[in-house]
């Protein structure tokens, strides 16, 4: 009887410690774990809880050390491998995490959480087919788990089946109707597929169910704006602003809808949010729109006097380099060394795989121009100044970093009179409904001259197509005069 009573106490204390950790009360859990250490010999359950407590206390290295010791002592316990895999993943060790997750699945083939984690890690290692198999099994075992559903949808999308991804998320909403993550994921998939009507229906359903957040209304506004329903989009953005009044992403889109006074540039946080979530499909999307800017820039830069003389032009700086589309267009031309700067870490990861840049820097390029004191023979800004309204500051910054006779080559969208969905921000520029700025032809010329540039090229060009219609823009090449110092 005494042994049974002691066992019951240990089980109760273990369950209570786990509940306290779930409630984010690591200090209270720590006291119980100390008591467990005195009452009973070491166990894998207590080892896992002790590691979880260390994580909650902000000590991930200690937690990994504790799990290493526990795995060595209890090598056949799947949960310890899964716990260490999760922690390694959180701390950036995806190789170790993948190995641990695989061990967890081998040791306990009935654990859907281990299969789901293994699948997510396989996606990280660009093995979408294997990830799909793991995540399909995880969802089959636990169809109501929203996180498993989201993982499976990502695997399906990575395998090229966006329709299956959406079906997986929609089915998950039926199991977990209060999951805001699933509802927003469904809307995002519809927006990516350019099914803006479907995105609006999903957002309306979320609103009717009372399961909405800032992201829901922001996505709804984007979809409505894409359908040309700008007044309704403005209402959606206003709702988003109520829920996230200090969110820079929301505030920028609200300004684009004309609800707030228009800011002179898009916030860096907005650009990070947009392009980190866009990196995996950025190039394919632009190609589908007939994106012309890299080719147009290449044609003008081929006329550079040094290029015509057979010289190497460098160093060259690619502002807002994104995934490196401009670098690809210029890869056989004598612009070197080429340095790229972008605010999006995800875009830079894609750019790095091309191995065309001597350096890549994760920074807001205005901060980079202010802090990096190098002088450049060429600065490029392809589709970057579309996130700036007032151009004076950015033109002055570029001018200050060019050597005399250095070139600044860039593209812009043109502001045309009477275009629906524009919030006028200043003389000669406006913030458009999709969050990009447009500029008038004369304003660009005046701003360039005011910054001290000589204008080599200022020509109207179609820069891409949207909805089958040309997007009017400008190709601009500016030169810092030789007398500029």
Explain how this protein is built:
By secondary structure, the protein is an alpha/beta fold. The chain has three domains: 1-109, Serine Threonine Protein Phosphatase 5, Tetratricopeptide repeat, CATH 1.25.40.10; 177-260, Alpha Horseshoe (Serine Threonine Protein Phosphatase 5, Tetratricopeptide repeat), CATH 1.25.40; 273-484, Vaccinia Virus protein VP39 (Rossmann fold, 3-Layer(aba) Sandwich), CATH 3.40.50. It contains 24 helices and ten strands. The protein has helices spanning 2-22, 26-39, 44-56, 60-73, 78-90, 94-107, 112-124, 128-141, 146-158, 162-175, 180-192, 196-209, 214-226, 230-243, 248-256, 268-276, 282-288, 293-301, 305-308, 325-329, 345-354, 365-371, 392-400, 441-450, and strands spanning 316-319, 338-342, 359-362, 376-381, 402-413, 422-426, 429-432, 437-439, 454-466, 469-479. It has a seven-stranded mixed beta sheet. Strands 6-7-8 form a three-stranded antiparallel beta sheet. α6 packs antiparallel against α7 (112-124), α12 (196-209) runs antiparallel to α13 (214-226) and α15 crosses α16 (268-276). The N and C termini lie far apart (93 Å).
Notable features of this structure?
alpha/beta, 485 residues, 14% strand, Rossmann fold, Serine Threonine Protein Phosphatase 5, Tetratricopeptide repeat, 7-stranded mixed beta sheet, 3-stranded antiparallel beta sheet, 57% helix, disordered N terminus
Give the secondary structure arrangement, pairings included:
Blueprint (H helix, E strand, L loop, with lengths): L1 H21 L3 H14 L4 H13 L3 H14 L4 H13 L3 H14 L4 H13 L3 H14 L4 H13 L3 H14 L4 H13 L3 H14 L4 H13 L3 H14 L4 H9 L11 H9 L5 H7 L4 H9 L3 H4 L7 E4 L5 H5 L8 E5 L2 H10 L4 E4 L2 H7 L4 E6 L10 H9 L1 E12 L8 E5 L2 E4 L4 E3 L1 H10 L3 E13 L2 E11 L6
Parallel strand pairs: 1-2, 1-4, 2-3, 4-5
Antiparallel strand pairs: 5-10, 6-7, 7-8, 9-10
Helix pairs in contact: 1-2, 1-3, 2-3, 3-4, 3-5, 4-5, 5-6, 5-7, 6-7, 7-8, 7-9, 8-9, 9-10, 10-11, 11-12, 11-13, 12-13, 13-14, 14-15, 15-16
